[in-house]
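Appendix B. Extra example for self-study. Work through it before the problem class; the solution is given directly after the inputs so you can check yourself.
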Amino acid sequence: MLNVGKIEEGIVLDHIIAGKSLSIYDSLQLDKLDCTVAIIKNAKSSKMGKKDILKIECDIDKVSLDILAFIDHNITVNIIKDGNIVEKKDLVLPKEVKNIIRCKNPRCITSVEQELPNIFILTDEKKEIYRCKYCEEKYEERP
Amino acid sequence: MRHLMSPLDFSPQELNELFDLATDMEQNPEKYQDSCKRKILATCFYEPSTRTRLSFEAAMLKLGGNVIGFSDAASSSASKGESVSDTIQIISSYADICAMRHPKEGAPMVASSISSIPVINAGDGGHQHPTQTLTDLLTIRSLKGRLDNFTIGLCGDLKFGRTVHSLIHALMRYPNIQFVFISPDELKIPDYLVDLLREKNIPYKEVIKLDDVLPSLDLLYMTRVQKERFFNEEDYVRLKDFYILNKEKMKLAKEDMLILHPLPRVNEISVEVDEDPRAAYFKQVQYGVYVRMALIYTLLNKTSKEVL
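Solution. Structure tokens for the complete assembly:
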């Protein structure tokens, strides 16, 4: 059994679907942070069988939880201070996501216009449907 | 500043005011003949669309204004790789209002987000064509006297037809509208629209044959059934006659049913039907000019008075 130590201050993302931690690492742009990050893959989970965990030792304001909610709002977010969990954050689907995903509609203006941000708007909160701001194409697959 | 990207950008009350103005322009053209004097409309058409472009140009000329523009991307700086954002900034220095047709969906929205003049979406790919919907609504209101309390049949390609989708969205906002969707299985109305109608408790039915429902309709909106939309030739041959409106079929329709069509037609309405007083598709083209006149006038006035 591999052991990864506790972090003193930062965020622990728990209950990530097994195998998804690396794409979350990319989406949160953790490579740009100058801090310790532990990526734990395929950890045992009573709830999920297998799960991934990310431990990020940094100032919590440096991580955008909006993006995380878009990727998977079932992820548990633990805020750690002085080595203890001080808060469990509920993730709420963001109303808008910018430059996280690209519109796949080949007829969309985002496919040709230079430096146009890819913006998706939450159009149906219940069904978790995001549509491209420009062509209104539904986004089908989460990162 | 106000733009027009989708037919739902205007509330039903605003549309009512727009249609009142369009009707006044139809009845008293001289009152408005100089109302846009010294104003310039730029028609930026990145793909050819003769009817829509000429309709916009005729509308501006009838208001006493002037028109500049291009009619396909090859004759614009887009062929040199210029972005829509850059083009609209240039056009804003030349013109007071812009009508934009673009093959890429959302292009007019990109233009409107940066433009210092009102932008009208004159059609963006398969996405929106709001002035066609305004035309349809004005035609119905002018010839039926109302935009509520009727049964409308939409016939033909209901899957890919953007004019059909926009019209359904627009009519959903009026009370007591019943929808009858007439199409082959391959070209049925998309699920998301059916879900929306169910959610709003708006009555609708889906049928394959036009004859079965023709007697119940107050309005019939015809569209073209394109051969290439079918999966196989056999189905096309079997079904195509269901969607051709001729004199014989018109005997089944109500005395005051109106036939609408966004045009161009191919063979889905026989030429013999043109003489029928219920055929409204050429009048629809005239209403298209009046509604564009009212739209240009309204957007220019809203801008100069900074109402919005």
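Self-check: Chain A has a mean pLDDT of 89. If your reasoning did not lead you there, revisit section 3.
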